[in-house]
Amino acid sequence: MGPPDSDDVHKDKETLKKKYHMTDLGEISWILSIHVTQDHKEGWITLSQQKYLEEVLERFDKANIRPISTPSLPNHHLVHLPSPEVDAKHFQHALRALMYLMLGTRPDIAYTIAALGHHAANPGIKHQHALDHLFRYLHGSLDYKLVYCCGVPGGDTILGYVDTDWGSDVNDCKSTSGYAFTLSGSAISWSSKKQSAVALSSTEAEYIAGAHAAKEAIWLG
Question: Does 173 share its domain with 218?
Answer without folding.
Answer: yes
